[in-house]
Protein: PrsW family intramembrane metalloprotease
Amino acid sequence: MKETPIGFTEYMIGALTILPWACVVWKAYPEKKTVRLVSGILIALTLGWISTEIITWLHPILWPETDFNPKKKVSMLTQTVHIAFIQAGIMEESVKILFLLFLTAALGYDYKEKKFQPQVVLFAAFIAMGFSLIENSLYIAREIPDKKIAIFIGRTIHSSNFHLLIDLCFALFMLKSNDKEKTDRITYLLLAFVLAVLQHGVVDFLLIPGATFGNWIATAMFVGIWVWIVRDWRIYVTAYLQERKTLIPASEYSSQSI
Structure:
């Protein structure tokens, strides 16, 4: 199938779908935005864009379209589950989380204390938004003119939101794993990955049919995850950074912010 070209206008509209969430995360993060941190955010956005390119390239290889009729009929329910949990959930979260771990290893891990640092939440958020930017732009480019406003609202409220929530949730699990024993950390993060896939799959399963009831349940799920994230953010990001700032002498803290 020929890929739909994305023009400058679609990219601009796609950028608007992630702008509100980018502002929320940027303002909520209490640490000073250093050159190193901003560089990490820009790299994260780029990795999010690369994620969409990798998935677009892999998708026809892993699930090629066929012209023949299958011998065994597949139900609509089975197809939806496969698309939601396998094609979308496992595939997308595997690529995004892998990039998050690479970026964290470079810029967000304290090798001396062997702990993930709070900035991983920013990296996770902007990888998710870089992914949503390109994905939303593609959906907007494919839509007919009369429905572009509707697709813009839907991608802003649902798609950008849940990509952000899922990856923020995983990043917070990374921070929570700092309190785990060394032997338990890998298992803990693997379970966090499974949770990310399940969250993605359930949301897509509810939204793919386009039914109003499913949209409301998905929205309720967003609210629940937001409450969970805000609570953990206060503990593992805001409180941690405030405590660390009081423990570091003012002169040393100022030098670290350059």
